[in-house]
Amino acid sequence: MMNVMPELAAQLKQLRLSGILDSLDARNRQAIDSQLSFVDFLALLIGDEVARREQKKFTMRLRRATCSNSKTFDQFNFERLPKLNRALVQDLAAGRYLNERSPILIVGDIGVGKSHLAQALGHAAIRNGTDVLFTGCNALLASLNAARGAGSYERKLATLARIPLLIIDDFGLKPLRPPADEDFHALIAERYEQTTTIVTSNLDFEEWGDAFPNNRLLAAATIDRLRHNAYCLVIEGKSNRDPKVAPPPHKSAIANSRKSDNS
User: Fold this and answer.
1) Using CA atoms, how far apart are residues 6 and 8, in angstroms rounded to an integer?
2) From residue 33, how far is each of 2, 5, 47 by CA, in Å?
3) Where is 169: in which H helix or E strand?
4) Local structure of 132: helix, strand or coil
5) pTM for this entry
6) Which neighbouring-strand residues pair with 107?
7) What tens digit of pLDDT does each residue of 115-138 get?
8) Which of 37, 43, 74, 191 is 20 to 30 A (C-alpha) from 151?
9) Which residue, among 137, 133, 139, 125, has the nearest Cα to 72 in the 3D structure?
């Protein structure tokens, strides 16, 4: 093995298969010990290379998505939300909505887990090979406005419109004033039935129009596109951000404190 390794390494690099070198020695020992055929040995090496490339793609997609590494379904506490339609969530996690290009709208009070659930869906989509972007609504619209000032608005809008799964967090947290309301409408209109959008909001569905205080017609047109064929999730429960209450002091600690005071 050592005699052919330099030449083999150069050839693998030329073929862009240098990752095989990471497992070559271990797989070679396995093949000798288990008396594997050349075909089985090659299948192991190719399998390692495929797995390495898939992991690399996942890592790149996750970095571009800006989803939190901890906001996954494994870390989501379903027990705190007994009213949540868990069967629907599990169905959505399988990713059929992506092929349908159907929006997902998630509403609920502050701190109940809307952003976590949205990002968990993003993680599942990334694992299935989908490009994702998670962004706050205000940051998203600020980026479009900045692109307008830089003369690259159309290019920025087109880039956002093409993302297979765009997760917009905290819609309606602040009223959409011009030109933010027009930018939001333009983005949703461009993505309508072409790509998939997930939106989270603290507002009830009936209040979404209030996010467009200057243009009710624009509000109706935008929300109509968002709600068409959408999956709607309402999360009810206590905030995950409730302050932790310190446990009461132990009786012996109280007694010792009183003795200290009396002395």
Assistant:
1) 5
2) 18, 20, 19
3) strand 165-171
4) strand
5) 0.79
6) 201, 234
7) 999 999 999 999 999 999 999 999
8) 191
9) 125
Please list, in sequence order, all residues whose beta carbon lies within 8 angstroms of the beta carbon of residue 109, skipping any fewer than 6 positions away.
Answer: 202, 235, 236, 237, 239
Q: What is the pLDDT of residues 148-180, one digit of tens each?
A: 999 999 999 999 999 999 999 999 999 999 999
> What whole-number distance in Å separates Cα of residue 61 and Cα of residue 56?
9
Write the single-letter amino acid at 44.
L
150-183 per-residue burial string, b: 16 or more CB within 10 A, e: under 16: eeebeebbeebbebbbbbbbbbbeeebeeebbbb
CB atoms within 10 A of CB 4: 9
DSSP calls for 176-231: --TTHHHHHHHHHHHHTTTSEEEEEESS-GGGGGGG-TT-HHHHHHHHHHHHTT-E
Q: What gap in Å lies between CA 187 and CA 222, rounded to an integer?
A: 9
